[in-house]
């Protein structure tokens, strides 16, 4: 067989190998290893081969693939899908790419090689640890810059204290409908954080710029008996048909934010950083925020991975922790019903929140790295990327994720695969009533509309 580099020809990976790499980039190396029964070490080797071929071979032929402008539209779509926890996989990516490519003369030639290189060119792997260092697609990069300028100006001019600057986000948790009591494999992987259907539970997580973690709100679908001893850091609401987005945010505003502002005596103005998906601000929510002098700062679509503090180092580690603990403990449940599964989830979440409560410095830094808080003069994307990499490593160490990866035969070598993908990437290229918020000038609130 031809050795890498011989004859100056570009190394070709088989379609199967490219499919494995595409799943690793769209979801995770662990999922790719499970689905295709390929050891992570092997996936890592294929990534290295692709890296080597990038040095030797030309880009894909012109005229058959998407233009840079069209690729940027596709990259925006990937980012907004992920913000809504909607699937980005081989099927959905190819469907969207084909739809965008129909406008091209002569049609759009789709291939697995193009898809893998596209994901790397636009820094779209899910396991990147330096996301804040990578540029967003041009159209939304400007939106992100304007948002950061707006938020930092408000914090400075209004003198907002860090204890009143919050980042809030909603995490949907999906449960596979059919879980056979005898099929442990299905039970272990039943808890998912990406899905198309109605979620089993909605988790609303809130952290403050001073590093504090507020109680988490969990809204579950169905009337269930309350857990025997719910963790003190978790507020539970169960409704037969679940809640819509307005109701979830109204519950959060009443049970979490109002209580927090009342504990502080209601003297300070505040700011709430949240994304523009699934968090439509109803009149009831706006009334609570306005009464508390809290300004909602809505992150533009597609920008959360760079400027949402929860996305910088907390959410992915928390999701991994919950899924890891679920896999370990669901084995011990015999013929579990929804009530016992909810109890399991709440216990795992309570443990995670207890650990996060001791990570004040890491959470505080995430607001700096996300540029919500003004950082030291001279900050640059590369230094922020270094900071994010360190933050994620520290957060995973606190949650013992790194240790569990090393000891798990299934995921041995995953960390190296993530690092390889990162090296590859470096080679490739709501609605609101503004005037109702006391103390904030209407002219300063244009970004909210």
Describe the overall structure.
Keywords: DNA-binding. This protein has 449 residues and is α/β, with parallel strands linked by helices. The chain folds into two domains: 15-127, no CATH class; 138-402, Nucleotidyltransferase, domain 5 (2-Layer Sandwich), CATH 3.30.420. Helix content is 50%, strand content 10%. It is built from 17 helices and seven strands. Strand 6 (270-275), helix 10 and strand 7 form a beta-alpha-beta unit. Helix 1 (15-26) packs parallel to helix 6 and helix 12 (309-330) packs parallel to helix 15. It is globular and about 65 Å long.
Question: What is this structure, in a nutshell?
Answer:
The chain contains 17 helices and 7 strands. It is an alpha/beta fold.
Topology readout:
Elements: H1 15-26, H2 29-36, H3 40-56, H4 68-83, H5 90-101, H6 112-121, H7 138-158, E1 165-175, H8 184-188, E2 191-192, E3 201-208, E4 216-221, E5 234-239, H9 245-263, E6 270-275, H10 283-291, E7 294-299, H11 304-307, H12 309-330, H13 338-356, H14 360-369, H15 381-398, H16 401-407, H17 414-427
Parallel strand pairs: 1-6, 4-5, 6-7
Antiparallel strand pairs: 1-2, 1-3, 3-4
Protein name: POGZ protein
GO molecular function: DNA binding
Organism: Panurus biarmicus (Bearded tit)
């Amino acid at each position: 067989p031809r050795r890498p580099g011989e004859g100056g020809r570009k190394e070709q990976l088989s379609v199967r190998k490219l499919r494995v790499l595409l799943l690793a980039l769209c979801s995770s190396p662990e999922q790719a290893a499970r689905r295709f029964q390929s050891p992570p070490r092997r996936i890592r080797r294929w990534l290295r081969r692709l890296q080597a071929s990038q040095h030797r071979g030309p880009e894909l032929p012109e005229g058959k693939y998407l233009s840079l402008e069209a690729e940027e539209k596709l990259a925006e779509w990937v980012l907004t899908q992920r913000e809504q926890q909607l699937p980005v996989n081989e099927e959905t990516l190819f469907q969207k790419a084909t739809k965008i490519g129909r406008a091209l003369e002569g049609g759009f030639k789709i291939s697995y090689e193009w898809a893998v290189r596209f994901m790397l060119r636009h820094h779209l792997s899910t396991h990147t640890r330096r996301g804040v260092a990578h540029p967003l697609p041009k159209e939304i990069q400007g939106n992100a810059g304007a948002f950061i300028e707006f938020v930092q100006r408000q914090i400075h001019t209004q003198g907002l204290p860090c204890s009143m600057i919050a980042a809030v986000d909603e995490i949907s948790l999906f449960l596979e409908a059919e879980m056979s009591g005898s099929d442990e494999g299905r039970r272990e992987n039943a808890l998912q954080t990406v899905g198309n259907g109605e979620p089993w539970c909605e988790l609303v997580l809130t952290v403050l710029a001073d590093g504090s973690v507020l109680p988490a709100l969990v809204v579950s679908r169905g009337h269930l008996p309350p857990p025997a001893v719910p963790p003190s850091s978790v507020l539970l609401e169960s409704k037969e048909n679940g809640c819509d987005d307005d109701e979830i945010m109204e519950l959060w505003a009443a049970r979490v934010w109002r209580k927090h502002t009342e504990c502080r005596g209601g003297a300070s103005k505040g700011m709430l950083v949240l994304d523009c998906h699934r968090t439509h601000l109803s009149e009831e929510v706006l009334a609570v925020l306005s009464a508390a002098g809290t300004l909602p700062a809505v992150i533009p679509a597609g920008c959360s991975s760079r400027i949402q503090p929860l996305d910088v180092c907390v959410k992915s580690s928390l999701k991994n922790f919950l899924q890891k603990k679920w896999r370990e403990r669901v084995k011990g449940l015999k013929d579990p019903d929804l009530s016992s599964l909810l109890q399991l989830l709440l216990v795992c979440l309570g443990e995670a929140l207890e650990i996060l409560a001791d990570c004040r410095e890491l959470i505080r830094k995430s607001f700096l790295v996300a540029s919500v808080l003004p950082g030291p003069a001279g900050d640059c994307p590369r230094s922020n990327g270094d900071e994010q990499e360190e933050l994620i490593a520290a957060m995973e160490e606190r949650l013992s994720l790194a240790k569990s990866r090393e000891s798990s035969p299934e995921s041995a070598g995953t960390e190296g695969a993530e690092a390889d993908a990162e090296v590859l990437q470096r080679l490739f290229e709501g609605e609101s009533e503004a005037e109702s918020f006391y103390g904030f000038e209407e002219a300063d609130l244009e970004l909210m509309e």
